Amino acid sequence: MRNVLPFVAALTVLVAALATNTGAGAAGGDDGVKLNQIQVVGSHNSYHLRSTQAEYEVRQGVAPEYNVGLDYEHPALGIQFSSQRVRQIELDLFADPHGGLYSDPLIRSFAGEGPLPAAEKAVMDAPGIKVLHAQDVDYRSNCLTFVACLTAVKTWSDANPAHAPIAILLELKDDAIPIVPSPPAVTPIPWTSANMTNIDAEIDSVFDAGEIIRPDDIRGAHATVNEGVLAGNWPTLGASRGKVMFLMDNAGKQADYLAAYPGLHGADLFTNAQPGDPDAAFIERNTPTGTNLAEIQDLVRQGYVVRTRADSDTIEARSNDTSTRDAALASGAQWVSTDYPGPGSAALLGSTYSVEIPGGVTARCNPVNGPTGCVDAALDTVPVEPLPPGALGTNWVTTPPTTTPPSSAPPTTGSPTTRPGHTSGSTAPVATPISARPRFTG
Fold first, then answer.
1. What is the pLDDT of residue 418?
2. Cross-strand pairs, 138
3. Cα angle for residues 437, 441, 442 (degrees, 5° grid)
4. CA dihedral 388, 390, 393, 395 (to 10 degrees)
5. Which pLDDT tens digit goes with each residue over 7-59?
6. Contact status, residue 384 vs residue 87, Cβ threshold 8 Å
7. Is 93 helix (H, G, I), strand (E, B) or coil?
8. What whole-number distance in Å separates Cα of residue 87 and Cα of residue 85?
């Protein structure tokens, strides 16, 4: 019996380890696959809700050529994770350290809608980072504050700890919007090295240190994050399950963030860097077609993680053009972002367009650098729930609006394009059209 006991003890340890493993088998995806060797679908502007018809008509008079590109929305973050297989989201962040800067959206007065509902106004009046698309003109969100969005992610993650890691792309917004001369739109507080630390502070107020994949984890014993990336130092999927990671969308904010966190030491965010930069791990290449396809594939082979887009401004969905989507998936970019994740998400546009990982899985072995023995079905085994009734919205534009070039004359009340479920003919004040390209279509 003495010779058998060590074997029995070892077997007991192995069985216990397998029983407590919330992922799939090692060969399929836990220890045999790294974070950068999978591919998932993400949602673009994941918080975004479409405007009311009255607000839509106001924008139609101001910038009709871009108004159509804003007519999309997403369900709550938890529904995106559970029912649409989303594993990457995008949030637009506005600094509001004293509160109240975005509590009175200008477009509501032009649309004759009055102040925000009391509950929403109370949230917007409180200090803290806000999440919206464009101040005063496109402000509706399914989670009004950064902390609220993060809490929604954590709540779902805690309930589904076997999920593949969720990447959270952050766009730091502070551009002015020259929509009307008077009254002017709110000028955002600039993002600086000093107040960028508030982003990390709010992240750390929701997530524990062990729940975040940070640049320090990839650097390891190497001198720079980039050296860690090129050495293949990404964690395994098994070590990444149930965790989140944060990516900075803005290339122009990289230097400011690095001034706050030199070398990304102690940082929560991966910067939007260029290959070879000391802080380079995450590379953004939003257009996957043409020569960009080969470039993204090369970046993935080198070890970088890449986000690209399958569609933008509702263009591909309306025409059911899948060429960019197919290139994005073939590129090997780890995160393929879309406004239409999953079947039926563009149906109310009269289109069958959607973006999903081939094979009906949440994640797949990366088509460019996926390792031998990788099994798609083992990468994320969280059960997919049916979409709740009405989750995809019911009041969508089914045809593009008339895009007559702006003139100097004020628009008439009531747009010629009326979205299903709404009535036109607002008697609200009108805005003055402008010819400059708005900065709020991203």
1. 41
2. 134
3. 125
4. 170
5. 334 333 333 333 333 334 444 568 899 999 999 999 999 999 999 999 999 99
6. no
7. strand
8. 6
406-418: average pLDDT: 33
Give, for 91, the enclosing helix (H) or strand (E).
strand 86-94
CA separation (Å) from 297 to 2, 57, 86, 289, 291? Answer: 55, 42, 22, 11, 10
Rg (CA), the chain: 23
Residue 383 tokens, joined: 């059960």
Dist CA 37 CA 118 (whole Å): 46
Count of alpha carbons within 13 angstroms of residue 77, beta-carbon side = 26
- φ, ψ at 88 (rounded to 5°): -150, 135
φ, ψ at 406 (rounded to 5°): -60, 145
Could you read off the pLDDT of 58-116 as tens digits, one per residue? Answer: 999 888 888 889 989 999 999 999 999 999 999 999 999 999 999 999 999 999 999 99
CA 265-36-222 angle, 5° bins: 35
pLDDT for the residue numbered 324 = 98
Residue 190 sits at the vertex; the CA angle it makes with 126 and 243, to the nearest 5 degrees, is: 65
Percent residues over pLDDT 90 in the chain: 73
Asked if residues 328 and 308 have their Cβ atoms less than 8 Å apart, the reply is yes
- Residue 32 to residue 375: CA distance in whole angstroms: 10
Other CB atoms closer than 10 Å to residue 317's CB: what's the count? 27
What pLDDT is stored for residue 334 in this prediction?
Answer: 98
Work out the number of other CB atoms within 10 angstroms of the CB of residue 56.
Answer: 27
Q: What is the pLDDT of residue 439?
A: 46
Nearest Cα to Cα of residue 179 among 129, 138, 124, 132: 138
